Amino acid sequence: MSTPTPSSSNVMEQIVSLCKRRGFVYQASEIYGGLRGFWDYGPLGVLLKNNIRDWWWRNMVECPPIGPDGSIVDMVGLDSSIIQHPKTWDASGHTATFADPMRKCVKCGHILRADHYWDILATQSKWFAELMTATENGAKTDVDTLARWVKNKARKSAPNLAAVAQPTITPPETADVKAIVHALADNNEPCILCGGALGSPEQFNLMMVSYAGLQQTKENLVYLRPETAQGIFLNYRNVLDTTRVKVPFGVAQVGKSFRNEVTPRNFIFRSREFEQMEMEFFCPPEDALKWYDFWKHERMKWWLSLGIKPENLIFRDHAQDELSHYSKATVDIEYKYPFTAPEFGELEGIAHRGAFDLTQHQSHSGAKLDYFDQDLQLRLKAEGVADDEVKKRSRYTPNVIEPASGLTRAVLVLLCEAYSVEPRAGVEKFEFFKFKPKFAPIKAGIFPLVNKDGMPEVAEKLYMDLRQSFACEYDPKPAIGKRYARMDEIGAPFCVTVDGESLKDQTVTIRDRDSMSQQRVAIDKVKSFINEKLDE
Amino acid sequence: MSTPTPSSSNVMEQIVSLCKRRGFVYQASEIYGGLRGFWDYGPLGVLLKNNIRDWWWRNMVECPPIGPDGSIVDMVGLDSSIIQHPKTWDASGHTATFADPMRKCVKCGHILRADHYWDILATQSKWFAELMTATENGAKTDVDTLARWVKNKARKSAPNLAAVAQPTITPPETADVKAIVHALADNNEPCILCGGALGSPEQFNLMMVSYAGLQQTKENLVYLRPETAQGIFLNYRNVLDTTRVKVPFGVAQVGKSFRNEVTPRNFIFRSREFEQMEMEFFCPPEDALKWYDFWKHERMKWWLSLGIKPENLIFRDHAQDELSHYSKATVDIEYKYPFTAPEFGELEGIAHRGAFDLTQHQSHSGAKLDYFDQDLQLRLKAEGVADDEVKKRSRYTPNVIEPASGLTRAVLVLLCEAYSVEPRAGVEKFEFFKFKPKFAPIKAGIFPLVNKDGMPEVAEKLYMDLRQSFACEYDPKPAIGKRYARMDEIGAPFCVTVDGESLKDQTVTIRDRDSMSQQRVAIDKVKSFINEKLDE
Fold first, then answer.
1. Residue B434: phi, psi to the nearest 5?
2. CB-based contact, B37 to chain A, within 8 Å
3. DSSP three-state, residue B520
4. Which residue from B26, B234, B473 is facing A31, i.e. has the nearest CB?
């Protein structure tokens, strides 16, 4: 049971709160009480998300890394529909197996994920929080205190808990919170809401349904994609036929996906609507392990390029018994989230999927998805390989290496990574975001020192020029210290101030968010000064 | 009845076919037989779409136009969920009124839009196509020929047509195709598939449903947004509270929307899943008409900046009886599509929505959405307005000006606008796309004249440098004429060729797509040469 430590859950709460307060992420439909598992990206959140999206696109589609043998890597982009033909999900295996084990409370009907029970209990149950308080976070258990809780508070917070109904059940004297919960629930796992007994686990499919057509009939049933990847497999043949790529090549796309998570949690880490960045790399089966290794390391380099500290990222190879039956190898890149620390949690998976996907779609659709590799044929012939074997090896169903990551999860990682607390701006624990300049939603605040004496005119003109190159904000109003603090909070790396001297010598001050130091720079050099930092 | 003329429908077919052939737009789930009303954007389509998206974002969010009084316009971006709380759509009126009149065939159950009946018949009915052939496109009607069609072919293509079942019905001698159809169907509109009688029109809601939660219950029912706009209204208060904007200000977003169109048609013009670019501009009621006028003209300027010929765009003011009850004024920007020519069809709507949206959400959610306008208060006081009136006028529910357009529709417009047929590349009717360079998916092809003699090395190096600045393709292989032709087809404005001379004097040729003329340019000037053209 990995109960979050109070300090880490505090950090997460503070990040969520700062995100709301400064326009990064809002709860969706907040004015209607919210909708669990859905989030809206505010003015700064959308800029941060776009910056990550564009950097991924640049490094995957526009300027992919040089291949393992030093040659140019063929890569193209795609944007496929969220809704595809339902047969897609039969072929991919999602209709049959994309399911989580769920348990339903026999008393109140609440449904939760069986395999995350203890985590969910620890983070979402009101009565469990009371229990934790009564046991001093499970450190010390006093039978009388527990019995008092059962007789008093628990009657309200966990009315269907077995111990509440049957006073014969007495809490055991142990420091093991799991054992106490089991005992109070008469050897069951109790509902996190009402304490009632949970039914047996059942598999529920996580794909969200819709209907293409006016009537909710079986014929019209469609699914909102649970991953963008399948849209790429469906277009593998189209891409080969209509562009100049040859195997090996990759197809990349960014887009929304949906999963009917029963217990969405940890802010935007696990939500029902989210955004992915996925790439499928098609290669000859005999080169697949080489490409797997290549992408594994390239993807780690990419995450590091976002300014994430190396100690916060690890590779986690999937154990043999953890692999999908078709996967030859899979590795996760994991990040040390505040809610997993000191452990790590999933960020990106790089999977060697073999020929599974194309084989499945070939057999379900009847389309020919194999490939004749002329380059390989020439290479093998030159190597003196026997004709029979050349023939056999140069026609194949390509293998696939899939680096699949979450864009919205990347936003979360940059928020966690950048979140800083320091004494500054007259506050002992001043909270702000230390984004790497390239990814900061706003790169610079442009200020007149005072809102008069010709300064606003100069500052406005500079702002109008700078905004052509990068996102910045013009702010003429409160005291300069307040304006600095506000820019620090939202993670803007630079503040450019026009003061009295500016009018005489055409220079301004540029203040650095991290060092808080200032330097004078000529007005006509501000753009190149900041652009240089953004290129780092 | 606006039956497309054969030539214009031909043009559309050619565009669709070129789009497929060159990787712009594929039918979604094509290998599973496709899914009506869903499209995938291929390697070139997604680049074209991103170019338009980024240009809109730049001109609306990053560098919005200077306001009507010469001051900076406050504008922020947003990315709200596709799925919002269902109450959203009660407040917006969508659950009650976002519906089309539909008629259902009493024989085969086919459902179609009542108000588009004749258009749909003309474009999608097999038996009607036969009828048109038999009547020489309705120009000449011969009763015997028609009677023969009814007795023979129609038994198969329109088995449920009244005239097929009742030989007493005889086709009238008239050139009016509508009258003939009516007569053959015993004074009804017949089903476009089987010829059966259509039931009375009924209203069907066009929102696609889903369920957030594992069970398909009424409590879990949600909708896929039919427009992005409501996500902005839901966050109006959040944006005001968490950023520094003051009324007037705008919130802009780009994203997918869904509509359960019964008869999706005209390629990507009317599809079930599509992408929008919408902005809501919140302003004091007394300034609303000024802002309406401002955005109306700014939006037209923006469309012209895409390189669309002025004669292909018009304003169409909504007539008084066409306006929504809450709208004070609405104007459409219309484009002359091949399937509407010589008429125009919808591209963007700019609506003066009054205070309707915020008032609705205020009354449905209970949230306070009115605004106290300190700037207006000061202004009115300075103008000597009486205190009572100042108080009354400076607290209000903002009015909204909404420029709402389709990103995927913009893609269609640029495809139609750029589609050209000229004798070139040894072909009498060579088809290609003449995109304005800024929006071309690929800006340049980089070629070695021959794939040897040191040319590939120079060309590859140039390619690796240029792709840092704009999308280009490296192609070493077929005859140079073929490579030019291919680049013309996909609308790449420039071809850069490394030849024998390049190795001696460090120059290359740059060929222009439109004039087909070439000029020699120093290798180290290629980037700035092309970048300059892209800035135009």
1. -100, 65
2. yes
3. strand
4. B234
Q: Which of residues 364-383 of A touch B (CB under 8 A)?
A: 364-365, 367
pLDDT over 90 for what percent of chain B? 81
> In this structure, what DSSP letter does residue A533 have?
H
DSSP 8-state class, residue B348: E
A177: which 2 tokens? 């919170």
Strands (E) across B24-153 are located at 25-27, 39-41, 74-77, 83-84, 99-104, 111-113
Task: Give B335 or B477, the one with higher predicted confidence.
Answer: B335
Cβ pair B37:A253 closer than 8 A: no
Among B20, B40, B243, B268, pick the best mutation site for testing chain A contact (most A Cβ within 10 A): B40
What average pLDDT does the segment B90-108 reach?
Answer: 91
Q: Are strands A444-448 and A494-498 parallel, antiparallel or unpaired?
A: parallel
Per-residue model confidence as pLDDT tens digits over B381-427: 999 999 999 999 999 999 999 999 999 999 999 999 999 999 998 89
Instruction: Report pLDDT for B6.
Output: 43
Compare all CA atoms of chain B with the CA of A24 and give the residue at the minimum distance.
B242
Question: Kindly report the CA angle at A307 between A3 and A67, in degrees rounded to 5?
Answer: 110
pLDDT value at residue B7? 55
pLDDT surpasses 90 at A365: yes
Rounded to the nearest 10°, the torsion over CA B464, B470, B476, B479 is -160
Site from A31, A203, A483 to mutate, B interface, most B CB atoms within 10 angstroms: A31
Q: What does the block give as tokens for A308?
A: 């994430």
**Interface touch B29/A471, C-beta < 8 Å:** no
A234 touches chain B (CB under 8 A): yes
Rounded Cα distance between B405 and B396, Å, is 28
Partner B contacted by A43 (CB < 8 A): yes
Structure tokens at B354: 């009054």
Give me the interface pTM, i.e. the ipTM.
0.89
The dihedral region occupied by A124, where left means phi > 0, alpha psi between -120 and 50, and beta the remainder, is: alpha
Q: What is the mean pLDDT of chain B?
A: 93
Q: Give which of A402, A288, A417 is closest to A348, Cα–Cα.
A: A402
**pLDDT value at position A7?**
55
Distance from CA of B388 to the nearest CA of A (A): 29
A31 contacts B367? CB cut-off 8 A: yes
Instruction: Report whether A161 contacts A184 (CB < 8 A).
Output: yes
Determine the average pLDDT of the residues in B206-226.
93
Q: What is the band of A315 on the pLDDT scale with cuts at 50, 70, 90?
A: very high
Nearest to A81 among B39, B82, B251 (CB): B39
Residue A4's pLDDT is what? 39
CA–CA dist A359, A367 (Å, integer):
10
pLDDT above 80: residue A302: yes
Task: State the DSSP H helix or E strand holding residue A301, giving kind and residue range, or none if neither.
Answer: helix A288-305
What confidence score (pLDDT) does residue A3 get? 41
Per DSSP bridges, beta strands B208-211 and B221-224 are antiparallel
Measure in Å the smallest separation between the Cα of A231 and chain B Cα atoms. Answer: 8
Is the Cβ of B323 closer than 8 Å to some Cβ of chain A?
A: no
Q: Which two tokens stand for residue A33?
A: 């009480």
| Cβ–Cβ below 8 Å for B31 and A243 | no
pTM (2 decimals)?
0.90
**How far apart are alpha carbons B293 and B300 in whole angstroms?**
11
Whether residue A30 and residue B361 make contact (CB cut-off 8 A), yes or no, is no
Q: Fill in the amino acid letter for A320.
A: Q
